[in-house]
Amino acid sequence: MSIAENLARLNDQIATVCRRCNRPQAEVALMAVSKVHPVEAILEAYAAGHRLFGENRVQEFQQKSEHLSQLTDARFHLIGPLQSNKTNKAAELFDAIDAIDSLKIAQRLNAAATALRKKLPVLVEIKLSHEETKHGLAPVELPALLNAIAEMPALEAVGLMTVPPWSEDAETARPYFRELRRLRDAAQKAHPALAQLSMGMSNDFAVAIEEGSTCVRIGTAIFGKRVYFKEESSA
Predict the structure, then answer these.
(1) How many CB atoms lie within 10 A of CB 23?
(2) Which candidate, 54, 48, 62, 100, places its Cα nearest to that of 78?
(3) What's the mean pLDDT when you consider all of the chain?
(4) Do 160 and 193 touch, CB atoms closer than 8 A?
(5) Over the chain, what HEC string results?
(6) Mean pLDDT of the region 53-72
(7) Dihedrals φ, ψ of 176, to 5°?
(8) pLDDT at 133 over 90
(9) Torsions phi, psi of 158, nearest 5?
């Protein structure tokens, strides 16, 4: 199937899930995760009407962005872990940063965005899994980080994100999604702008929507298997 056909099928599936759990489809954004896919794939998705994309690596997207300047209404989010030495370039390249996991990164992003006279929406990534390979902030540290970000004029915390352990059984992700929503609901009392929940990928997005996701991040089901870039260190 083409990228356009994959997008249409996924939007239909999202609509079906939303009807089943009595949610307006407009509440759930579909992010096309274009990491390690070529510029041509992004252009094809854009031609099909898609506008929201997720990238994992700063330098990879820097290379791609040179060929995407004409996509003025597309939005590109950094969804992978961000190294502190890449914060300046990340603030310049991306419309939002969806993986803040430390005060140091937030401070550096705030300084970079301030220099650019830019207001950056950010999501805080929460680590709910015990897997060593997963990134994110410990839940107990969330209130302090949100309070700190609230004092940063160039950042706005607009939500939370998480990546549960992968499983062929989507139901195993439900407790993680439910916990992220609980954390969001508790934190939103002090931080009303914290409305977004970025959770759910190709194998478990239906469960994520049922548990309140406002953005599902889908790559393989849109673009097919990854074609890895010959490029630099991580973001």
Answers:
(1) 17
(2) 54
(3) 94
(4) no
(5) CCHHHHHHHHHHHHHHHHHHCCCCHHHCEEEEECCCCCHHHHHHHHHCCCCEEEECCHHHHHHHHCCCCCCCCCEEEECCCCCHHHHHHHHHHCCEEEEECCHHHHHHHHHHHHHCCCCEEEEEEECCCCCCCCCCECHHHHHHHHHHHHCCCCEEEEEEECCCCCCCCHHHHHHHHHHHHHHHHHHHCCCCCCCEEECCCCCCHHHHHHCCCCEEEECHHHHCCCCCCCCCCCC
(6) 95
(7) -70, -40
(8) no
(9) -115, 0
Q: How far apart are CA 64 and CA 55, in angstroms?
A: 10
Q: Is 64 within 8 Å of 83 (Cβ atoms)?
A: no
In residues, how long is the chain?
235
- Write out the two tokens for 116: 């650019």
Q: How many CA atoms lie within 13 A of 218 on its CB side?
A: 27
Residue 55 to residue 78: CA distance in whole angstroms? 5
Chain mean position to CA 56: 9
Model pLDDT for residues 45-54, shown as the tens digit of each residue? 999 999 999 9
What confidence score (pLDDT) does residue 131 get?
Answer: 72
Angle between helices 39-47 and 3-20 (to 10 degrees): 60
